[in-house]
Amino acid sequence: MKYMIMMFGGLGAATQDRSPDWIAGMHQLLMKLDTELKESGECLASEALADPGQAKTVRFTGGAPVPTDGPFAEIKESLVGYWIVEADEERALQIASAVVGYTEYPMEVRRIMDHSSQP
Amino acid sequence: MTGQPRAEDLLREIAPQVLGVLVRRYGQFDACEDAVQEALLAAVVQWPAEGIPDRPRAWLLTVAGRALVDGWRADSARRHRETAVALDPAGPVPAADRGDTDPPGGPPGADRDDTLTLVFLCCHPALSPPSQLALTLRAVGGLTTAEIAAAFLVPVATIAKRIGRAKQRIREAGARFELPAEPEAAERLGVVLHVLYLIFNEGYTASSGPALQRADLTAEAIRLARLLYRLLPGQGEVAGLLALMLLTDARRAARTDTGGRAVPLAEQNRALWDAAAIAEGQALLAKTLGAGPVGPYQLQAAIAALHDEAPTAEQTDWPQILALYDILAAVAPGPMVTLSRAVALAMVHGPRAGLALLGTLDTDARMAHTHRLEAVRAHLLEQAGDAAAARRSYLRAAAMTASLPEQRYLVLRAARLDQP
Question: What SS3 string covers B182-236?
Answer without folding.
Answer: HHHHHHHHHHHHHHHHHHHHHHHCCCCCCCCCCHHHHHHHHHHHHHHHHHCCCCH
